[in-house]
Amino acid sequence: MNWIREHKLIVGIIAAVVVLAVICCISFSRGGGSGIAGKGTNGAVSAGEGAVTGGMSKIESIFSGIFNYRSVVDENAALREEVAKLEQQLLDEKMSSDQLKQLKELSKALDYKAAKNRTLVSADITSFDNSNWINTFVINRGTSDGIAKGDVVVNGTGLVGRVLECGKSWAKVVSVVDENSNTSFMVSRDTEILGILSGDGRGGLDGYVLDADSGIIEGDVLLSSGMGMYPSGIEIGTVTAVNYNSDTQLKMITVKPSVNFRGILKVAVII
Known about the structure:
Blueprint: H1 2-6, H2 8-32, H3 38-106, E1 120-128, E2 136-139, E3 152-155, E4 158-166, E5 171-175, E6 183-187, E7 190-199, E8 205-209, E9 221-224, E10 235-245, E11 250-257, E12 266-270
Antiparallel strand pairs: 1-2, 1-12, 2-5, 3-4, 3-12, 4-5, 6-7, 6-9, 7-8, 8-11, 9-10, 10-11
């Protein structure tokens, strides 16, 4: 019944062909019984047989075309399904490749000063916050792995954020690019230059330098200062713009995060 509902056009064509065949047969029957004798009758019969044979050939051709069409439809559907499977396979392979690359990068986190004599627990990101997906996300490690609220989260390129809350086998992480996060920094080339950063709401960072007379410049690499919730020495980002705000009398900066939050798949938690 479902097939009939889904293929109303084909069913209609078949019904029309059947009706046409019945009409041809009735017409031939009536023609054969008209009382014509001898050769006339035989001629009529032969002509009728030829007409019926020709009609049946056309009917067979129509039916063949209908079922060939059905076969093509089935083959196309199977082909589309196969293409979809191949596309998913390619996507899975790319994902695996990206995950492997990031897993290798995590080994760099072992060089962080904050990780010395500490344990790093690697984790996969399982979901992002629907409302602001680069600001908060969930990982597949929790209290059963030794993770606790406030633990620092990193990857191979820099500071990611901290654990906001956790369960037995999961933890929610808030990133440094969250608008409500405040991260104290120092400049790598001059650790006496200090300031505060927070998320800009677009996946980047902005902030200010505590000393407006400091010599911070574009291209400076910023590290966590060790003041506040993050240990010192973890790379945060690179300064892309410096401006003086006469109203606040502060030197304002724009920073590109070292971590690619839009492509992040794996992290490490320092416990």
